Each structure stands twice: as C-alpha cells, then as structure tokens.
Amino acid sequence: MSKKSSSLKDALQSLFATGAIVIAFIVAYYLFSQVMGNPVNFQGGNPKGQAIQGNYLGIVYKGGFIVPILMTCVLTLFIFFVERLVTLRKAQGKGRLNVFVAEIQSFLAQDKIEDAVEACDKQKGSLANVVKAGLLRYRDLENDKDLEKDQKITSMKQALEEASALELPMLSKNMVMFSTLASISVLIGLIGTVLGMIRAFAALAQSGAADSLQLATGISEALINTAFGITGSTLSIISYNYFSSKIDGYTFKIDEAGFSLTQTFAASIRK
C-alpha cells in the first residue's frame, strides 16, 4: 500500500467518524425535541410542566439539554459497533479460521504451495492475505540458490511481518472511539447530574416553601442524566472488550499461521 493511498484511507476514516457524530447528533436532537418533547407527553400539553405519570418519553425529556448530547454518544456507539461488526466480519473471510489454518498446515506438510495459495484466494480474509504473502515469498525463496539459510528465514519473517503490518491496523481502527465514549459518557452525565442538583437546591433555597415543580424537575434532570451517562459508558466498555477479544483472536491466528509457515519453510531447507 502506497503512502498516498494510506493517507486517502485515513482521510476517509476521519470523514466517516465526523459524519457519524454529526448524523447521530441530528437524529438525537430530533428525537429529543420532536418525540420526547411532544406536548402529548406532558400534563396540560405543556412541555415545561410535569410529564404524564408513566410516560417515559416525557420523563426523559425533563433531563434537559444534556440528554440529546448523551443520546448522541449512544447513537455514535451504535454506528461504530455496526462498523466494527462489518469490518471484522470482512476480515474473518469465509469459513472458520481454525479450519482454514488446519487446511494450510496440511497443504504445507504435503508441499502443496499452489493449493495453499488457492485456499487463501477463496478465504479472502486478513489471515488469508498474510498467509498468501508468506506463501508467495516461500516459493520464491525455495528456488533462490544465492541466499543462505538464515537469510531466507529472515526474509520469510519479514514478508509475514510486512503483510501483518498492513492488516492489523484495519482490525483495530476506530477502537479508540469505544474507550473515548466510555469516558465522556460518564463525565457528560455527571455534568447533567450537577446541573440538575443545582436546580433542585435553587428550588429549596427560595423564600418560603420550596417550589415542588422546580424541585422535581431538578431531581429528574440529575437522575436521568446519571442513568444515561452510566448506560452509555457500560455499553461502550462492553463493546470495547468484545471487539478487543475478537481482534486478539485474529492476531493470534495470524501469528500461529506465520509461525507454522516459517517452521515448515525452515524444515524444508534442511531437506
């Protein structure tokens, strides 16, 4: 991959991330203002009043302007969750990786390099791309009479490392979004909680009796934002750990296949 194509790909990734956040915010604000803020959700048809008992759309709306920001975090999380699912599914290729690795090892044991390359073309995953790069170098080095054994093994390892360096970044791309959302969801929720408590204490501080509507609104705002923030953070952490385990599994398979290929090549030189 050239530097130019790599830069273009990074630019598209950044554009995708920015676009995802903008779209998520637009959708979140629409849901907040038009669906949750619909007058039918409130007593007397007034969004500034109390929500109808049991109407959760109205109750969430009383969380204030922090709610659409937290909804943006959740929707952004959903977008990147789907993006990671699609990307990793493509990286997995066709069929089970364990079966593919066993098939490649069987072909190598029988010195059927061309059959192994053909299996890689059919599998079409990140693991197959790395193995194919190693197999092509395998056949070239096998016919090379000028290089010493150690040089051939080093060249084989280098080919596998270069191929892995092209595939692994794609697997871990955008993972930082999950860790970022896990942190900022809680912090944004905490801001909403503090603002809600300020409103509640302001109602208590009024002369005479406390304004029950303002007090209830402030407490609702605090609790709703806390719940939203914790929910967004929890889902982000779960998503991050899930995809991290999947990526670690792919990385292990790539390392396993590369090691097996290198060992087989080293053994064939001694023959």
Could you characterize what this model shows?
The chain is mainly α and 271 residues long. It has a domain at 97-171 and 255-270. It contains nine helices and no strands. It has helices at 3-36, 56-61, 66-92, 97-109, 113-123, 126-142, 149-172, 175-204, 212-270. Helix 4 (97-109) packs antiparallel against helix 5 (113-123). The radius of gyration is 28 Å and the shape is rod-shaped. The model has no long low-confidence stretch (mean pLDDT 83).
Instruction: Give the uncertain stretches in residue-range form.
Output: none
Whole-angstrom Rg: 28 Å
Instruction: Tell me the strand percentage band.
Output: under 5%
Structural class: mainly alpha
Q: Main beta sheet: strand number and arrangement?
A: none
* Mean pLDDT reading: 83
Shape: rod-shaped
Helix % is over 70%
Order of helices and strands: HHHHHHHHH
Separate helix tally: 9
The termini sit apart by 35 Å
How many beta-strand segments?
0
Chart the SSEs and their pairings:
Layout: H1 3-36, H2 56-61, H3 66-92, H4 97-109, H5 113-123, H6 126-142, H7 149-172, H8 175-204, H9 212-270
Helix pairs in contact: 1-3, 3-8, 3-9, 4-5, 4-9, 5-6, 6-7, 6-9, 7-9, 8-9
Write a brief structural summary.
Helices cover 82% and strands 0% of the residues. By secondary structure, the chain is mainly alpha-helical.
